[in-house]
Amino acid sequence: YYQELQEAARRGPFGFPLLLHAEEHEDLVRAEVLSILDHPLKAFASAVTDPASWCEFVPLNLNVKACTIQRDAQGTLLTLYIGGKTYLAPEAASPQPYRFQVQARRSRYVAVSLNALQGLLGTKAHQLEFEAASVDRRTVVALRSSYQQSAASKLATAIYLATVGRDKVGFSREPGGPEGQARFVKGAQGIIERNLMRYYLVLKAFLDTQALPESRRFEARLGTFYDLMERYPAQLHEMERAEYFDIKRHERENQIRLQQTVGPSRSQPTGH
């Protein structure tokens, strides 16, 4: 993808090397984001293959209220606690457990997957896949998401799109705007694109701050992720900076407490 991404940096809508694609085919929902990051692969390969690191950056996402790690005979279980964008205690959120697996870890390539047979609202076959490869001392990253919809999830999506999500847009463009101009997609495709873009941006915020002293990383990641979202206000602006920081600080405290109740992780979350 390297040459294609370099071309996207020159001609694409983002102004830097990034490609975003989403599709809905019958019950299957799939999305993919590709990018080039100015970090050597070695700098973060050890981090992204450690599930504890995922619990450091995924909860930056507005809809993730906490993240915990448990280990059993089958391997590592990473549980995300999903809720609305406002503050929510993890006990009131919906837990979504994933099997965390390192698919490959080599000097120039790393791959990680999160899989869940069952999801919220009866959805199935959830997959979140991350790949990274070293090219010219930079890193090409691919983040892919897919799941099977259910009747309940389709109904919930329809209600959302008819109410609070009515005017929200995605990143792709389609014909039909004024004077024949392209306009941002809406509907289910817009939801898919926004969700995956947030996951990509939390990963980027994590990598952009990984070199900082550990005691400074959490606050720096909050600021970096918020600033990245604000580059795309039409798609990703949800609240003011102070409110976001306040919510995530409280949810961070909840996560540390929750992890202590389910057992130790290999690297415990640090305070802010």
Instruction: Count the beta strands.
Output: 10
Give the number of helices.
8
Query: Which segments are poorly predicted (pLDDT under 50) over 5 or more consecutive residues?
Result: 267-272
How much of the sequence lies in strands comes to: 25-35%
Rg, please? 18 Å
Estimate the mean pLDDT confidence: 86
- What is the topology, as strand order, of the major beta sheet? 1-2-8-7-6-5-4-3
Broad structural category: alpha+beta
The shape is: globular
Order of helices and strands: HEEHHEEEEEEHEEHHHH
Share of helix, binned: 25-40%
Instruction: Give the CA-CA distance, first to last residue.
Output: 37 Å
Structure in words:
It is a single chain. By secondary structure, the protein is an alpha+beta fold. It is 38% helix and 31% strand. The chain is built from eight helices and ten strands. An eight-stranded antiparallel sheet has the order 1-2-8-7-6-5-4-3, with helices on both faces. The chain is globular.
